Amino acid sequence: MNTTNMAENETLESITEHERILQEIESTDTACVGPTLRSVYDDQPNAHKRFMEKLDARIRNHDREIEKMCNFHHQGFVDAITELLKVRADAEKLMGQVTDTNQRLQEAGREVTAQTEEVIRCRLQQRNMATTVEKLQLCIPVLEMYSKLKEQLESKRYYAALKTMEQLENVYIPRVSKYRFCQIMAETLPKLREEIKEISMSDLKDFLESIRKHSDKIGETAMRQAQQHRTFISAMQKQASLGCTKPLYSLNGRTPTQHNGLHREEGAEEEESEEQVRVLTAQDLVDFSPVYRCLHIYTVLGDRDSFENYYRKQRKKQARLVLQPQSNMHETVEGYRKYFNQIVGFFVVEDHILHATQGLVTRAFTDELWNMALSKIIAVLRTHSSYCSDPDLVLELKNMIVIFADTLQGYGFTVNRLFDLLFEIRDQYNETLLKKWALVFREIFEQDNYSPIPVETEEEYKSVISRFPFHEAEIEKQPFPKKLPMSQSVPQIYTQVKEFIYASLKFSESLHRSSTEIDDMLRKSTNLLLTRTLSGCLQNLIKKPHIGLTELVQIIINTTHLEQACRYLEDFITNITNVSPETIHTTRLYGLATFKDARHAAEGEIYTKLNQKIDEFIQLADYEWGMSESDGRASGYLMDLINFLRSTFQVFTHLPNIYNDHAAMSGKVAQTACMSACKHLASSLLQMLLDPDLKQISLGAIQQFNLDVIQCELFASSEPVPGFQGDTLQLAFIDLRQLLDLFMVWDWSTYLADYGQPTSKYLRVNPSTALALLEKLVSTGQPLMKDTSKKNNIFSQFRKNDRDKQKLIETVVKQLRSLVNGMSQHS
């Protein structure tokens, strides 16, 4: 029962499903039937058979409906066909009429159609033309601006070209950006900008190269204007009564100067050239437009920083090149002038750039550049100036440094270190002056005849005293012709010292120093001239072999007058500097000490040369030491020596009298020289007797020697030089006199008895001297005491049996030896 019910239920469900599928097939597009049919086969087995059966039943049902419908409408269809056949004839007739009418209409409208098409074409052209004009009106400004851009580029108006590009990009091209030519144009503009940038940079490089070549001319112009300005200001100060004036020139408009009719000292105003009259500026010598143009271009392009860095870097490199001097710069003035011109030109350009542009260079940058340059300049000048041996070149260098410093100071640069350098160069300048004047002094000394200056007329006398401050009342009273005590070198030396002061003063000018400082510099340099250069020349002169006693005497006279003239040199410096010598800080001249030292050296040289001359005469001595008896007269060499001494001491009467304490210089120098000569003569004669090479001396030789000593004593007592008291001069020979008296008188008992007593007659006889001479005494050529067995006794003329005298000699020798030994033990 249950099985039957289940079967019935399944059948009802399949029927319902098949009905749904059929409805879906009927209502669905044919392309979508496949999935529906597939569901029939996916259901229960044999379901498609039942579906087919169901489908066949449905088809048959529709066929019956179609047949019913056709049967219902068949009569109407037949009626419609019948009506249509009736209308067919009328339609064909109408068709013919329409065709005919159409042909007539076509023929009639063909011309209208042609005219209409022409009108349409014209209207279309008109519209296109209007559109074209409208578009061209938009494009023409763009093309005109681009053409203007090309013209600006061709005429190198790059800054204006960049402005034109900016307008093209921001205003004109956006209006017609859809056109291809505008796109090409827009793509070209960046390239043009880079091209402009490269061209402007190339122009800048050319400018930098050109400015390096023109720096020399720029600096020369600036320094010339500064020098003319200084000259004009100096003239203006001297002629202040003529009214205020302005400087003549300017560069960069920094120091405006104009001429107002002030007459110059040389009257050269009328011959001024056009170049001097015209106001010069840096733009007159250099075209700065490349810098301005490049700066504006890089500013517009937004790359100003890189341009500023590049410009400053390149100028630093150029500054280092400018600061490199030529290796032989120190040889000529032109070398220094070119060096200074280039540096000044460089910084004049930088100053112009500083004031003509905004921020391309700054004051800090130029100050940094100047400080770097200043250190290098000072080092270069310090090195190269040390090679200068010509004072004129050093003076030219100083003047150029002053103008160089003043020029740059006018542009706001600090130059204090340059003036400090000038003080170093001043010392070097003084050294070169000292070397130059050393040659001048040597030449004067070499050309001097070392004799008093003869003056024949009053004009000659005035000529001499105009060059040298000589005032001697006694000589002025003498009639012409007469002689001045000093030689020709004295006024020449005095004149050259004044020339040296003038030369030293030249360097002190324009150093912005006070009169007191200039006075101090002059006095110090003059002191160096006197104490080192002139003193050295005098010392060398005195030591020269060809300078004789007469020349030395004249040198003493000359130094005396030069010493007296030192106070006039003091007054000369005071008149130049207008600084009172009573000022507490005023340096005094050391000439007095210089000439005193030279005079003392000359005096010492006189003593030395006099002794040398005495030695030369002594070398001419030719004693016959074995002679039996004397010649009865003094030796010829000694008489010649005494005559030489007499004539020599006569020369000393020409020495000037300036000493007031004891005696005249003539007396003092002559006395010292005479005493020195006598002592040296006595010492030389004594040494001759005691010469170790002299082994034997006869009594006759001693007698001859005594005659020569007597002549020396006579010379000393004849007062060859006045001023000696009593027998002071004879005391120089006292040692020889007592020694010879001892041997001539043979007073040994007295000598030995009184030895060591202050009142001894032979107080100045040394036992060792007496012993040495006693052992040399000979007679018949045999020693006296060396060997008593030989025939060498002074008493050999006595009989051989006279032994008492021999014993006395032996006793004297023994006692003398004991005295000598006692002296050596005591010492």
From TrEMBL:
Q: Which UniProt keywords apply?
A: Exocytosis, Transport
Region labeled Disordered — which residues?
Answer: 253-273
Top-level taxon of origin: Eukaryota
- One CC-aspect GO term: exocyst
**Annotated Exocyst complex component EXOC6/Sec15 N-terminal domain residues:** 54-223
InterPro entries linked to this entry? EXOC6/Sec15, EXOC6/Sec15_C, EXOC6/Sec15_C_dom1, EXOC6_Sec15_N, EXOC6PINT-1/Sec15/Tip20_C_dom2
Q: What does this protein do?
A: Component of the exocyst complex involved in the docking of exocytic vesicles with fusion sites on the plasma membrane.
- Stretches assigned to the Exocyst complex subunit EXOC6/Sec15 C-terminal domain: 418-776
Q: Which GO terms describe its biological process?
A: Golgi to plasma membrane transport; intracellular protein transport; vesicle tethering involved in exocytosis
Name the protein family. Answer: Belongs to the SEC15 family.
Please state what the protein is called: Exocyst complex component
